[in-house]
């Protein structure tokens, strides 16, 4: 994978940004040690994207100055720290940095799939749910619980802007949720386009096939 500016610049950028949160030398060393594994996961994720900004010629390309790419990177970094050490101040700092810089809320305790996509994710809030591979979302999307029940989301699910999935929902594979749609405590079969607001949803057949970002 090609990194814009190279690995040393990425490390310096993280160091400078996290100094705002009083990053210690021990915490920075922890980040440096985890970066190779995080970047390997990032390359795997980006390799499935059809977005032209994720390629430099034939190689996977990562720019920390591309906010959609950078927010995925920061989530994966915080998630990796959480997987190794549990809920820590360092994971909190990276989570906070992601919220502050990219205006989205993806807590590191939320387990997103190894491959997911986003574009223009401003104002999105992704809460706890079961997420399938190739999930994608846009600005203003919300996923969360209702009365302690969380959604279960299949593979190749695409959420368009300002759509919501809340509560006891099972979303099948290859579902496209249209802009402004609000699904609450309802199941959606596989291979559907979804419109409207629960309980009055409109379902149509999805004939577009599996779609990547």
**Which sheet architecture does the biggest sheet show?**
5 strands, parallel
Structural class: alpha/beta
What string gives the helices and strands in order? Answer: EHHEEHHEEEEEEEEEEEEE
- Give the amount of beta strand, in percent: 15-25%
So what's the overall shape? Answer: globular
Number of helices: 4
The rounded Rg comes to 18 Å
Averaged pLDDT, please?
96
Number of DSSP strand runs: 16
Spans where pLDDT lies below 50 across 5 or more residues: none
Spatial strand arrangement across the major sheet: 4-6-8-11-14
Percent of residues in helices: 25-40%
Overall tally of structural domains? 2
The rounded distance between the terminal residues' Cα atoms is 18 Å
Which key phrases capture this entry?
UDP N-Acetylglucosamine Acyltransferase, domain 1; 213 residues; 4-stranded mixed sheet; alpha/beta; 16 strands; 5-stranded parallel sheet; 32% helix
Structure description:
By secondary structure, the protein is an alpha/beta fold. The chain folds into two domains: about 1-105, no CATH class; about 115-205, Hexapeptide repeat proteins (UDP N-Acetylglucosamine Acyltransferase, domain 1, 3 Solenoid), CATH 2.160.10. It is built from four helices and 16 strands. α2 packs across α3 (about 65-85) and α3 (about 65-85) packs antiparallel against α4. It starts with a strand and ends in an 8-residue tail after the last strand.
């Amino acid at each position: 994978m090609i990194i814009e500016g190279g690995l040393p610049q990425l490390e310096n950028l993280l160091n400078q940004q996290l100094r705002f949160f009083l990053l210690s030398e021990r915490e920075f060393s922890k980040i440096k040690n985890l970066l190779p594994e995080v970047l390997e996961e990032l390359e795997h994720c980006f390799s499935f994207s059809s977005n032209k900004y994720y390629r430099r010629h034939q190689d996977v390309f990562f720019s920390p100055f591309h906010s959609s790419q950078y927010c995925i990177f920061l989530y994966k970094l915080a998630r990796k720290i959480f997987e190794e050490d549990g809920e820590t101040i360092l994971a909190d700092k990276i989570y906070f940095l992601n919220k502050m810089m990219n205006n989205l809320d993806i807590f590191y305790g939320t387990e997103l799939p190894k491959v997911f996509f986003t574009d223009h994710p401003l104002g999105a809030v992704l809460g706890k749910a079961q997420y399938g591979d190739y999930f994608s979302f846009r600005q203003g999307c919300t996923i969360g619980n209702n009365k302690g029940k969380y959604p279960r989301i299949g593979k190749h699910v695409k959420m368009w802007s300002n759509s919501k999935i809340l509560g006891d929902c099972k979303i099948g594979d290859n579902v496209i949720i249209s802009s402004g749609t609000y699904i609450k405590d309802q199941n959606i079969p596989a291979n559907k386009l979804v419109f409207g607001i629960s309980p009055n949803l409109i379902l149509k057949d999805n004939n577009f096939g599996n779609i990547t970002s």
